[in-house]
Amino acid sequence: MFFFIQSFSQETGKKELRKQKENTEFISTEALIDSMKFKFNASHALPQDGPSIDLTTNPNYLIIKGDSIYCSMPFFGRAYNVNYNDRGGFHFAGIVENFKKNENTKKMKIELKFKMKSPMDSYQFLMTITGSKNTSLTIISNKRASISYWGEIDILNK
Fold first, then answer.
1. By three-state DSSP, how is residue 80 classified?
2. Model confidence pLDDT, tens digit, residues 69-80
3. Which domain CATH number covers 67?
4. Most buried residue, 19, 80, 93, 137, by CB count within 10 Å?
5. Of 46, 27, 52, 62, whose CA–CA distance to 154 is shortest?
6. Could you give the CA distance from residue 130 to residue 53 in angstroms, rounded to a whole number?
7. 84 phi, psi to nearest 5 deg
8. Considering only CA atoms, which of 119, 118, 116 is closest in space to residue 98?
9. CA-CA distances (angstroms) from residue 74 to 23, 32, 119, 124, 143?
10. Cα dihedral 105→109→110→116 (10° resolution)
11. Domain hosting residue 94, numbered range
12. How far is the CA of 155 from the CAs of 63, 115, 131, 132, 147, in angstroms?
């Protein structure tokens, strides 16, 4: 009986420590998002038609800085209407429109939705961020099939 009580109290202590760590990470992630100065780096691309693609050796980023967005992400999938001299992928900078943030404190997830228009295309973004900064990003374009990326957000360095 003594061993059962002792092991049960240790399990409870471990669960509490894990919960405290998750809460701390979520608060840190929430503060990073609220600062509107963060960078997303993708480790994998998930095209609509095809397998996951490893991007660890392929430089990419999506930066949110205030009301501005800077994007350089590779694209794998079907393009419906692109310019002849298009260098491929998503390469643009612009102003964020219709920024919406939804928090789910129970699941410790934050969802960001926003749009951006360029002279050549318009984009919709959906980011789902966990408390540990793991992030999924989906980009929907008028001229290309939608694509998702997995990676992490981090503090924007100068």
1. coil
2. 999 999 988 888
3. 2.40.128.410
4. 137
5. 62
6. 22
7. -60, -40
8. 116
9. 33, 25, 20, 16, 15
10. -160
11. 2-155
12. 10, 22, 14, 13, 24
